[in-house]
Amino acid sequence: MDLDVVFLGTAGSMPTARRSPTALVVRRGGERLLFDCGEGSQRQFLRSTLGLVDLSEIFLTHYHADHYLGLPGMLKTFSLRGRELPLTVFGPPGLNDLFASLRRIFGRLTFALDLVELQPAAALERDGYQLETFAVEHGVSSLGYALVELPRPGRFDVQTADRLGVPPGPERGALQRGEAILLADGNEVRPEQVLGPARPGRKLVISGDSAPSRSVVEAACDADLLIHEATFCEDESERAEETRHSTAAQAAQVALAARVKMLALTHISTRYFGPEVLREARELFAATVAPRDFDIIELPFQERGEPRLIKGGARPEKGSETGAEPAVRAAGVEEKSE
To answer: What are the tens digits of pLDDT across the range 30-71?
Structure first.
């Protein structure tokens, strides 16, 4: 099953000409999960190859304006299009209070809107994975999110199945699902006889805004991808501490301590173009990227390779229509000056 992250907004508190405020979409199979919804997020959807999909779930990390200002307009657009599909918004405590104010802006909706407040250490069980929340240090009610896939069955040993007399067809499918089968001759075959060791699922961690934190290290332990804010470089470390943000070097230290495969830096301040943030982090953690808007990071299964940054992977070809999701093209991971 495919798993990737589409970066729709990578700026810090203010947009720039090339970066919009925070918004990213996690795509797993047919699911589309939006994490944070900064100003102009629906415009970013429309400018991308995704189009403005009818999301069923949105997850907010905290309630600073640059992480939710895109919600009222997006909800209103959904309603103007006559949407009927229910929508659930998740977030830390304070979500109901936030929407008590936002409802004055977007008004009556054509669809059911459910609000779910989450505490740290919550776990949302899904088909094949769970979403786990963890505390971060940002000075306000905030959450990070970890998408953790369940282990997968081991590889099916065709030669052993042949030797045991397991016929091709549904019997082999049952064994792969972990079910024992009974052969025509009365012999039982158990899954462990034909399956190799369980294979790990993937792990994706989103810190949201946070100062460097032990809780993020623990949540991101051995993750395939850690998406961590890097609002500042070390030249502004005092400002980072005052505002409970992280520098690029601090994000790299978190990634190093957590032993992640790849670190993606987001929430870049308008003070920087991007390359300088990337250089600082890579001095400590080489497997670092600094995505721009419309970049994609693919997360293959462990046996199929490492996470991969696809530059501009969600940006339509010139003259093409948006709203589809064509296959993306691979590109280099080196950051260039904006």
So the answer is: 999 999 999 999 999 999 999 999 999 999 999 999 999 999
Contacts of 285 (CB under 8 A, 6+ apart): 252, 253, 255, 256, 263
What SS3 state is found at 266? strand
Closest CA to 21 of 68, 87, 60, 59: 68
DSSP state of 207: -
- Catalytic-role residue among 66, 209, 224, 293: 66
> CATH for 3-152+199-310?
3.60.15.10
Has 66 been annotated as catalytic?
Answer: yes
Q: Which residue has the tokens 């429309």?
A: 46
- What residue spans define the domains of the chain? 3-152+199-310, 158-194
Query: What's the pLDDT tens digit per position in 175-196?
Result: 988 899 999 999 999 999 999 8
